[in-house]
Amino acid sequence: MQKKKLQILEAAMRLFARQGFHATSIQEIVDELGMAKGSIYFYFKSKDELLLSIFEYYGEQLYNGMAEQPGEEGLSPREALRVQLERQIRFIRENVEFIQMLIKEPLIGVDHVQLKSFAFRFRSRYLNWLNARIQAIYGNEAERYWADGVLILSGMMNDFMQGLLIDRDAIQDRRLSDFLVRRLDDVMRGMMEAGEPPIMGQSGFRKMIGFGTPDGETEQKAAILAEIKGLAEGTDSEETVALLEAELNKAVPHRVVVRAMLALLEKQAEPEWNDTLQRLGRILEA
């Protein structure tokens, strides 16, 4: 992201947190930055677009914290989950004022179609990430309970984050992440030992995390990727497509890596591939 655009986002978030979204004017944002009012419209058409960009930017920051960081390659799946949960808790703590503003102030007049789409994608990616972490920890033996474990852990995390928003001093990041992982152990072991039927099967869960999105986004992505694999079969691009597919199948794909692979494919590809690659790029950037 361009440095100036990031500065605008951060200044707007500070003001929205202090004053509220509706009470903050574009003029106040540019005054905070010491820039000309017209400059902000080069990056954002309106205050609504600015707010949506803040959601997307900070959502991406949260996703980045969910990904494996340098030096974490040797962690066990269980410890990796604990570390990543701790980063999420710290992120919420560091941005608590802005999140409190969103809860207190109804965003009347904002493009709710785009907000709803963003919220759906955010939750789907988060649940998919938790599902991958639980699979890695408990393995195929617990497969029928993966989805129930995801929903229980997500619910616990959400409720404790509500507590953090009310009193940030009441919760310690490391202690809470330890606690959540231990309770997840209790839940998964309890379900496996009881042997009762799961509440949410994997089929229903897959619909929740992507299949059945408003635009059929997941189905479209899978279909286009299959088309590209067919085009690349037997060519020099076959390995690049395999690497792209592996990255997209991760719980939290690195967008920079995905963009780099798409750019490489565009250079390697035959002219008739262009339309297919562009369609995949549009879905991934949505």
UniProtKB/TrEMBL annotation:
One of its GO terms (biological process) is negative regulation of DNA-templated transcription. GO terms for molecular function: DNA binding. Keywords: DNA-binding, Transcription, Transcription regulation. Residues 2-62 form the HTH tetR-type domain. Residues 25-44 bind DNA. It comes from the Bacteria. This is TetR/AcrR family transcriptional regulator. It comes from Cohnella candidum.
